[in-house]
Structure formats: C-alpha cells, structure tokens
Amino acid sequence: MVGGQLPQSCGLKTGSKLWALQWSLVTNDALIMAKQYATQALNPLLAWGIASRIGISASYVSRQVMQLSINVTGPGTSAAAVQGTAMPDAGWLWQEYKANGH
Fold first, then answer.
1. How does strand 53-60 pair with strand 66-73?
2. Does residue 97 lie in a domain region?
3. pTM above 0.90, yes or no
4. Are 14 and 37 in contact (CB under 8 A)?
5. How many CB atoms lie under 10 A from the CB of residue 41?
6. Is 28 contained in some domain?
7. Over the stretch 7-55, which tens digit does the pLDDT of each residue have?
8. How many CB atoms neighbour CB 56 within 10 A?
9. What's the structural domain count of the chain?
C-alpha cells in the first residue's frame, strides 16, 4: 500500500456484478448469472487461501426476488453461511471511496 491506497498495478477490484441484476425479472438465466457473478466475486478468497471451499446457490422466490445462499468454509473446519434476498448495506464502502479522494 502506498499512502493508504493500493497501487493500481496490484489489479485488485472490489465489488461484484450482482448489482446489474437488481432490475431483472427472476428467470433461469438470471439465477445462473447471479451464481456466476457471486462466484467471480468470491474466487479471490480461494486463491488467497482465506477459504478452502465456497458453495453458492441461487433460487427463485418470486418474479422480482431471488435468494442467494453462500456457504464459505475456511482453511480449517470453520464455516460461515450467508443467506439473503437483499443487498447488504455498503454505505461504509462508499464513504471510504470518497474519503480517499475519489
């Protein structure tokens, strides 16, 4: 890190493409894309050795609501499961972004 910021050459990206599905109707294609987008966003946890296994499933709730279930298993035997139908509050990320002069 240089001056509290990551150098651009590190190639680290934050976020995911899941936001792009916010206005989509829930179809089989949308469920497949949600699973792919979540997988892309979480794959660095596997590459960095933070997680040993990540299980993701997307399911239909209604034409406007899908459920994304994520199960992350750590390098040992610990596991964390996240399940929800709404986006988490990422307001803190926006505040950090603005605080770093963006």
1. antiparallel
2. no
3. no
4. no
5. 17
6. yes
7. 555 555 667 888 888 888 899 999 999 999 999 999 988 888 888 889 9
8. 18
9. 1
State the DSSP string of 6-29: --GGG------SGGGGTTS---HH
Q: Which two tokens stand for residue 24?
A: 């989509």
| Terminal alpha carbon distance of the chain | 17
What are the tokens at 40? Answer: 């892309």
List the domain range (segments joined by +) for residue 64: 14-85
Tokens of 76: 């040992």
Query: Residue 38 domain-assigned?
Result: yes
* Under 8 Å between Cβ of 17 and 34: no
- Dihedral, CA of residue 34, residue 36, residue 42 and residue 43, to nearest 10: 180
The verdict on residue 4 lying in a domain is no
